[in-house]
Write a structure and sequence with these properties.
This protein has 154 residues and is an alpha/beta fold. It is built from 7 helices and 5 strands; from the N terminus they run αβαβααβαβααβ. Helix 3 crosses helix 4 and helix 6 runs antiparallel to helix 7. The relative contact order is 0.22.
């Protein structure tokens, strides 16, 4: 490493982790307001691309855009917030390589019944089976998936 890059601050990707309607976005917005860090939200990308919450056949395109957005924002920011569920090892590993940033996992551990209640109260009943399925297939973060510099916070 040349001396010019030797003292560059590491970039940090803050990865929200939690079920839909758990409060991830509320926490991400509060953090963004406090720190000035931009937020990348796959749900907003979905709306911008195809005007609705979820179309399975469009997911590769959605996540390609999310990836580009995160990388582009790191051009002018030291920290970027990824407001996504990140409930499985596979989804989290996508942000592990290449090692361009440290990851901070912020876990929003809201009870699934409360998430379903919130979905019902906000007229998002279509999310209830999604919440139940994600809770069933949830994979906790393990020490094995953390790289040096990665941290987990609740």
């Amino acid at each position: 490493m040349d001396s010019k890059n030797q003292f560059k601050k590491r970039k940090t990707l803050i990865m929200m982790k939690g079920l839909p309607r758990s409060g991830k976005s509320t926490m991400a917005r509060a953090m963004s307001k406090k720190t000035g860090s931009p937020i990348v939200t796959p749900d907003e990308v979905r709306l911008a691309i195809h005007g609705q919450a979820f179309i399975p056949s469009a997911e590769k395109l959605v996540w390609a855009h999310v990836d580009v957005m995160v990388r582009a924002l790191f051009g002018n920011h030291d920290t970027v917030i990824l407001d996504a569920t990140n409930m499985t090892l596979r989804s989290r590993d996508e942000w592990r390589k290449p090692r361009l940033w440290d990851r901070v996992f912020l876990i929003v551990d809201t009870d699934p019944d409360e998430c379903c209640k919130r979905a019902y109260m906000t007229n998002q009943k279509y999310l209830i089976p999604v919440i139940e399925k994600m809770h069933q297939y949830h994979e906790p973060i393990t020490d094995d998936e953390l790289d040096p510099g990665d941290t987990v916070s609740r």
